Amino acid sequence: MFSPNTTANSLKDREVVNVCDGRRIGFVCDFGIDIVTGRICSLIVPGEFKVWHFGKRDDYIIPWDCITRIGDEIILVNVPSLVCERQEKEGKCK
Fold first, then answer.
1. Which positions ≥6 away from 25 have C-beta within 8 Å?
2. What architecture is domain 11-77?
């Protein structure tokens, strides 16, 4: 899927595209980390600002298992419903 020499820092700022609908979700800004294993368990992409909630935004948290391909500039994900659930809050981070 990607080079074994790939670092977390090199994944930042890559565009994330949903293969289900072709929608550009945004750019990786952060990661969810499993503190027990030290592995990345999700990508975090900033959500759109909400006008009625005074600029509050809900970030998209995309589980690592949803990644289908990591390219040089783009990360393809398979998220059937674009409403990426907050996996970390529910403790589903593997």
1. 16, 17, 18, 45, 60, 62, 77, 79, 82
2. Roll (2.30)
- Each domain of the chain, given as residue ranges in start order, spans 11-77
Query: CA-CA distance, 74 to 77, in Å (whole number)?
Result: 10
Give the containing element (helix H, strand E) for 25.
Answer: strand 24-27
Of the candidates 78, 62, 61, the one whose C-alpha atom is nearest the C-alpha of residue 18 is 78
For the whole model, what pTM was predicted?
0.72
Residues of the chain with pLDDT under 50: 83-90, 93-94
Q: What's the sign of the alpha-carbon dihedral 81, 84, 86, 90? A: positive
Burial 30-46, CB ≥16 within 10 A → b, else e: ebbeeeeeeeebbbbbe
